[in-house]
Amino acid sequence: MKLLLINGNTNAAITDRAVAHTRAALPRLGLSGTVAGVTARFGAHYIATRAASAIAQHAVLDALAEHGAGHDGVIIACFGDPGLEAARELSPLPVVGMADASLTIGFRQASRIAFITGGAAWVPMLEEFCLLRGYSREQVLVRAVAPDGGMIAADPDGAIALLAQAARDAAAEGAGAVVLGGAGLAGLAPRVAAASGIAVLDSLDCAVLAVAEAVAQPSPTPTPSSGLSPALAALLAG
Questions:
Q1: How far apart are CA 94 and CA 217, in angstroms?
Q2: How confident is the model at residue 63 (pLDDT cuts 50, 70, 90)?
Q3: For the residues 55-59, what does the mean pLDDT come to?
Q4: Is 176 in contact with 110 (CB distance < 8 Å)?
């Protein structure tokens, strides 16, 4: 399995972190493969606003067009999944997002889950993301600590206690599965779980599991056609 991670932020350190985490996660999750990463060519250093997310949608499609060939599956390594639907529309490859995958994996474990991330601006954005997928605010509790994901990536030690308290609070509100969301928070779930006493899922792990499942699915049967140009016929054939 050849995976491509697309970081919609322009912070290459986040890309490197996500790639390293995914490479280590594959054998831990019982999977194997290679992992390549690409950083957005333009946009915000770390997405924390609606405007930055909108720009990142373009950047993700740009990166997919430039680097998607030769891979088996794509992970959009930004919680909030900028450009996910458009990428799925354009790409013959399976494309998954960290937040979308976390919903899938989280709801396999519990009927009420929590997303914990960095940056208060993400709360309404992620609530809307979940609502568009049919999940209410009662089904998905979205909580954030004050430092955004970029700040947490730069100083994870300073955020563990905050994240652990948020995990305890979410569990007290009835969340049966708690997801630590964000590429900048990748790899922190075990430390937050140890500090909080709550089982915590890593959103990037969720994306790896989801893309592996998608890659394993059989390709759809091409739609029969006639009279098309060779290029269009090849596109329809996948």
A1: 10
A2: very high
A3: 97
A4: yes
201 within 8 A of 212, measured Cβ to Cβ: no
pLDDT at 222: 67
Which stretches of 29-148 are DSSP H helices? 50-67, 84-90, 98-109, 122-132
Phi and psi dihedrals of 120, rounded to 5?
-60, -30
Q: Give me the helix-helix angle, 98-109 and 122-132, nearest 10°.
A: 70
Phi, psi of 70 (to 5 degrees): 90, 5
Amino acid at 69: A
3-state SS assignment for residue 144: strand
Tokens 């450009």 belong to 83
Q: Which two tokens stand for residue 217?
A: 């699915």
Task: Provide the CB-side half-sphere exposure for 24 (13 A, CA).
Answer: 10
- Which tokens in the block code for residue 172? 């007290």
pTM for the model: 0.90
Length of the chain measured in residues: 238
d(CA 35, CA 14): 14
Residue 73 has pLDDT above 80, yes or no: yes
Q: What CA–CA distances, in Å, run from 129 to 34, 124, 134, 136, 142?
A: 30, 8, 9, 10, 11
